[in-house]
Design goal:
The chain has six helices and nine strands. It has 175 residues and is of the alpha/beta class.
């Protein structure tokens, strides 16, 4: 974890939003109760919290819940997962355009980019696009999944990509 954060801090071309595990590690570091839904992962978060460089807690704690950018008149929201009262809602196991439009009905976003739920979501309604390229590492195949979004005067276009990687050594390293 420290090595990953070292790498992230060294880069100036990355923006961050906080997620459920960042919140859980901070709670474990501060000996606070785990966030909703993380009771069974507490041991893992405590393991990280005991080993993390304390300076990195402040770095992680500064991650915002959301980031919004306007590009060529298109408003783009980045969020770890959908929010209600500044808390992540439960995972919608069968998402659809109608339920997503209902969540964002009072917003002006043209594109909502999110993660958390590890499956790919590609939805487009009359109101906006919704994109979750899937999990980068939590996938049953050794593929890193991500998306590329292009904004032009004509609108928003995206591509989903998968890059194979050898996960055998990584999986062998687990105890």
């Amino acid at each position: 974890t420290n090595e990953v954060i070292d790498l992230l801090i060294s880069r100036t071309d990355i923006d961050y939003v906080t997620g459920n595990h960042e919140r859980a590690v901070i709670a474990a570091f501060n000996n606070e109760p785990p966030p909703r839904g993380h009771l069974y992962e507490r041991e893992h978060h405590e393991w990280i919290a005991k080993r993390i460089n304390p300076d990195y807690i402040d770095f992680i704690n500064r991650f915002p819940l959301t980031l919004t950018y306007e590009v060529l008149g298109q408003v783009i929201l980045f969020v770890h997962y959908h929010l209600k009262n500044n808390d992540f809602i439960s995972i919608d196991k069968e998402p659809n355009v109608e339920s997503l439009d209902l969540l964002y009905e009072n917003s002006n976003y043209d594109l909502v980019c999110f993660g958390h739920h590890h499956i790919v979501h590609e939805f487009k309604s009359q109101n906006r696009h919704y994109l979750n390229p899937g999990s980068l590492g939590c996938y049953h195949k050794p593929l890193a999944r991500y998306g590329i979004v292009e904004v032009s005067k004509e609108g928003i276009h995206h591509q989903l990509r998968e890059v194979p990687y050898d996960n055998k050594e990584f999986l062998k390293s687990y105890r």
